[in-house]
Design a protein that fits this description.
Blueprint (H helix, E strand, L loop, with lengths): L11 H8 L19 H23 L8 H20 L3 H23 L7 H9 L17 H34 L9 H47 L3 H40 L4
Helix pairs in contact: 1-7, 2-4, 3-4, 4-8, 6-7, 6-8, 7-8
Length: about 280
């Protein structure tokens, strides 16, 4: 853990606060500063994105027309699932050539980022503790990118940009601007300000809720794993209280099994909302 924690065992609050700190550029302050970058979230998100793309490329490269292997069969099931969802939401076949692979990439990427929560809480931070300070970095490390609001909001902003592009592509710049002012209450000049305000509120609400939903669920899951880890830490420090040890093992196992469903569901929900929002960009009011 942190260097200052060597003199005495950290309290539960100190342990959690330490594990919730990001490895950042610049000085860490309570003031919002958009020039500060969470290096740990950036590293793991990019690395897992590359890993996800490599796995999909590997499956496509090794695909055969004969009896598929387990890996190919699993990827084919995933591709068919995403493709069927895309066909039911985005009815433009030309758009689906980009939207369906995008949705597949989003699902795999977010699933891999969520799955980092299944690693032992102190595994990578402990490794970083022996390496990071020696390299001149601070002793902070968070490994779940989707428990970082900047990552999830960045993903939702990316979806918003795709939606805006398709609004212009499908309806034309003039048609989309007209829709901004004419919907949802009608093409009346005195309703234009209200219509425009409602459209902006809708875009903002969808984008914020899209990113916050994923962040909130993964952040809560991360906290629960930290609390379970505290049970094991309390037993290790005291050397007594077998109930703490058993509680740590049982609670950790049960929550990890349940969390597999959560990380998959959250990736699926984010992917489905991406398809829905892009599909809405194809609809004319």
């Amino acid at each position: 853990m942190a260097a200052e924690g060597t003199a005495h065992a950290p309290t539960a609050g100190e342990y959690i606060v330490h594990h919730l700190q990001h490895l950042q550029t610049g000085k860490q302050t309570a003031v919002v500063d958009f020039s500060i970058i969470n290096l740990d979230s950036l590293f793991f998100s990019v690395t897992l994105g590359v890993l996800g793309c490599w796995l999909l490329w590997l499956a496509a490269r090794k695909a055969t027309s004969g009896v598929p292997g387990r890996f190919q069969a699993a990827v084919e099931v995933l591709v068919e699932m995403v493709d069927s969802q895309a066909k039911g939401i985005v009815h433009n076949a030309t758009s689906r050539k980009l939207v369906a692979p995008l949705a597949l990439t989003v699902f795999v990427w977010i699933f891999l980022m969520n799955a980092m929560d299944l690693l032992p809480v102190d595994l990578i931070p402990a490794i970083w503790h022996s390496v990071g300070p020696a390299l001149g970095f601070k002793d902070y490390m968070r490994v779940v990118p989707t428990a970082d609001l900047s990552i999830t909001m960045g993903l939702s902003l990316g979806v918003l940009i795709v939606c805006l592009v398709y609004n212009v592509k499908i309806k034309g710049a003039g048609g989309w601007i007209h829709e901004l002012f004419a919907a949802p209450f009608g093409d009346k000049w005195f309703l234009y300000p209200i219509n425009f305000l409602m459209q902006i509120i809708e875009f903002v609400a969808k984008t914020v809720s899209h990113g916050m939903r994923l962040f909130g669920n993964m952040y809560a899951g991360e906290l629960i794993f930290m609390l379970i880890a505290l049970m094991g830490g309390a037993w290790a420090l005291s050397g007594t209280g077998i109930a703490l040890f058993l509680g740590h093992i049982i609670a950790g196992s049960v929550w990890a099994i349940f969390h597999i469903l959560i990380i998959t569901l959250q990736a699926f929900v984010f992917m489905m909302l991406t398809l829905v929002y892009v599909g809405q960009a194809h609809d004319a009011h």
